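TA notes, week 10

Several of you asked for a full example with nothing omitted. So below is the full record: structure tokens for the whole chain, then the designed sequence directly under it. When grading your own attempts, check the secondary structure regions first.
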């Protein structure tokens, strides 16, 4: 009959020369400890050259392993160093965990799968592990997976910024628009983020001169960053970012006019949503307000200018797109509604980038989701404390292949 030690050895797939010498069971503490050793005279491979050598000395180390039933399991191991004839005294690599890790490979795979679905803080509570250890684990695998990424085929990128926390500093996200993956996360939102991206891009086999199109907002910092670092890239101000400028103007008009027209109070989203997206009740309210021509509401006029702008993107030819944009600009700039006139001037200053959309046809859908992506990552990284932690959550949360690389490293 097999001993209990033999059964546990099979359960954790322990191979010679390693063997479980005895098992410690603390029922009150809910812990099982497997004490692992090796026979005298065993040889181990040098982690540098692969040659075999006998143990030089040993040190006791402990790793957290997957639970056995309701009991936390730890491997307590006498780990040797060897005296390699070529490379000197070296710490050996154990087959169940990476160097300097607190957990076994299997436990790390389990923990990272949980982190994918819930907050790090919650995972820490469930598996009863200090969250700092979880963060260190995720930093390691995120960096290891990113080192394998190849950006040599990337030609179109989207860039957007969002706040790290309400009223706090910003992070900038760089996305491969064709493969729909986050390829870089930078702290800040200035032109230096574009410089940092370019350096990282080169380190991942990307050529800045191969980037033909960049979708950004109208931030002067981003514009100058593109011009300085991506010499052959054409800038596109996609529909989402341009419409956002007009939406802000419409809302400004509504706020100003609300002081005189009580019927506009509490109707912010009535004039920011597309007509097709309004609820039946909201649509009735809008139609009721529109049917009061005697009021000649600036908000309604601004809303119609906004709707007219959106129609421009339905044009079938570039000539038609530019012609409609010019007509819209004339209407908006002569509207006698100051916020709308300012929005028109902003678009005029960025005219070539607005027109470029028709040629690049950059899909703004992924850009619209950038902010919600970061919000979701921040929620999962609740209590993240540092930019490094937030970045670690953003990469695999958006990039499924990066998360898969996490797990690949554990096999």
């Amino acid at each position: 009959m097999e001993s209990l030690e033999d059964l546990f050895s099979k359960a954790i797939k322990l191979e010679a020369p390693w063997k479980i010498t005895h098992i410690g069971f603390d029922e009150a503490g809910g812990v099982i400890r497997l004490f692992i050793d090796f026979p005298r005279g065993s040889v181990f491979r040098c982690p540098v050259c692969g040659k075999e050598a006998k143990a030089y000395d040993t040190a006791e180390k402990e790793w957290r392993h997957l639970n056995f039933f309701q009991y936390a399991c730890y491997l307590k191991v006498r780990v040797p160093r060897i005296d390699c004839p070529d490379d000197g005294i070296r710490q050996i690599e154990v087959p169940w965990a990476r160097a300097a890790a607190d957990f076994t490979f299997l436990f790390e795979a389990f923990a990272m799968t949980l982190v994918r679905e819930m907050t790090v803080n919650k995972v820490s509570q469930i598996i009863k592990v200090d969250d700092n250890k979880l963060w260190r684990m995720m930093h390691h695998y995120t960096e290891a997976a990113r080192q394998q990424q190849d950006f040599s085929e990337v030609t179109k990128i989207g860039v957007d910024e969002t706040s790290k926390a309400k009223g706090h500093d910003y992070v900038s996200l760089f996305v491969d628009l064709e493969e729909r993956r986050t390829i870089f996360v930078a702290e800040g939102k200035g032109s230096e983020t574009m410089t940092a991206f370019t350096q990282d891009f080169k380190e991942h086999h990307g050529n800045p001169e191969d980037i033909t199109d960049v979708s950004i907002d109208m931030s002067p910092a981003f514009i100058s960053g593109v011009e300085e670092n991506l010499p052959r890239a054409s800038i596109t101000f996609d529909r989402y970012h341009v419409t956002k400028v007009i939406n802000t103007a419409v809302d400004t008009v509504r706020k100003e006019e609300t002081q005189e027209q009580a019927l506009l109070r509490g109707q912010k989203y009535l004039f920011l949503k597309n007509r097709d997206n309004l609820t039946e009740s909201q649509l009735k309210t809008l139609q009721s307000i529109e049917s009061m021509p005697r009021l000649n509401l600036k908000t309604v006029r601004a809303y119609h200018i906004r709707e007219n702008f959106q129609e421009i993107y339905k044009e079938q030819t570039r000539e038609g797109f530019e012609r409609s944009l010019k007509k819209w600009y004339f209407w908006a700039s002569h509207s006698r509604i100051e916020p709308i006139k300012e929005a028109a001037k902003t678009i005029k200053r960025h005219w070539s980038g607005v027109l470029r959309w028709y040629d690049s046809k950059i899909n703004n859908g992924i850009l619209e989701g950038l902010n919600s992506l970061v919000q979701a990552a921040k929620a999962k990284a609740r209590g993240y404390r540092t930019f490094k932690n937030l970045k670690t959550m953003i990469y695999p949360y958006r990039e499924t292949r990066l998360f898969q690389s996490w797990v690949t490293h554990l096999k």
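The mean pLDDT is 88. Use that as a sanity check on your answer.
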